[in-house]
Amino acid sequence: MIPPASVPSILLVEDAIHEAYLIKLALEKKSPSPPLHHVMDGRAAIDYLKGVGRYADRSLFPLPTVVILDLHLPGLHGLEVLAWIRAQPRFAELPVLIFTASIDPKQRSKAEALGATGYLEKPSGFEALMGTAAALRAHAMNGRVAYASA
Asked: Which architecture does CATH list for 10-142?
C-alpha cells in the first residue's frame, strides 16, 4: 500500500505528445490542479513508480495519487504496465485510470480484470476533454473515481 501522498499528483503515461499537452492544458484550465508528471512509454512508467534512474529523486518525481494510463504505448503495452502495477503490493490501491482511444470491449474487460480503477475513452474535441479532465482532477484531488459525461 502506498503511504498517503502529502500533495496530490498525477502520473500521465501517454506516448502522443500532442495528446499529453492537451490533457495538461485541460487539467490546468480550472484550479486547483495537481502537479502532472508525464512519461511517454510503459518502461518509463514502471521506472517512475519504482523510483529508479532519472526518477530516483522523490522530491522531483513524487509517487502519484493517480495514474492516467494509455493502452497503446511503445515497448510495454498499457495492460502490461497495469498488470505490473497490480502485482506490486505497495501499489495495490493506487488508482489507475485507463484513458484510451480504444473502444475494443476485450481490452476494456481485460483492464477491468487486471484491476483498473476506471476506463475512459478519449473524447474528440477540446471541450469534451475539459469535462473528462474535471473528472480526472477530482479523482486526483479527492481519491475518488469521478466520471464526466463527454
From this structure: 3-Layer(aba) Sandwich (3.40)
